[in-house]
Amino acid sequence: MNSNILIENLIKGNESTYAYIMDEYYTKLCIYAQGLTKDKFKAEDIVQNVFLKVWHKRKKLSPEISIKNYLYKAVYNEFIDQYRKNKIMSPLEEKHIKHLDNIIEDTDYNEINKLIEVVKKEISNLPPKCKTIFTMAKLEGLTYNEIAEHQNISVRTVENQMYKAFEIIRQKVGDKMESILFLLFKLNLENRL
After folding, report:
1. Is 88 exposed, middle or buried (0-12, 13-18, 19+ CB in 10 A)?
2. Whole-model pTM?
3. What is the pLDDT of residues 106-115, one digit of tens each?
4. Least CB-packed of 19, 26, 103, 118 within 10 Å?
């Protein structure tokens, strides 16, 4: 069904259109949200909140918007809102969230998912020593000193391996690398705590 017709019917309060949109997008949005939260139940809460807000704010929707893009952006925004409410963020996290907002604004969700997959692939293809050090820093949240002590190497070696990993990933992802890594590791680490 045409997106403009869907929006127009939704604005009018057509419940069957609302049900159709839920049937069409609910599962896809839950999968997307789960990629952000790494938690099935949180993902479902986010999507349910989005659909409630869509219904309550339907009269303010613009008939020209793409319902698909609108819903994915709404899920992302709800995820960020919940993350901000549940965490006391450091200035660095605030910076990353702001940068993520810009990426989401300029990039559709398919491209973001592709970038995440590219980063995962590049991490898995890192040289073994480099991969170990990189995952210890990013996934386990260890400091360079802790990694050096654990691996029985110098801090300088850890720095060099991290630099190497960042350069390899940056070649494939470009200037969006930091935000994608933040999505992949920082939020994942927070969810594990």
Report:
1. exposed
2. 0.50
3. 555 667 677 7
4. 19
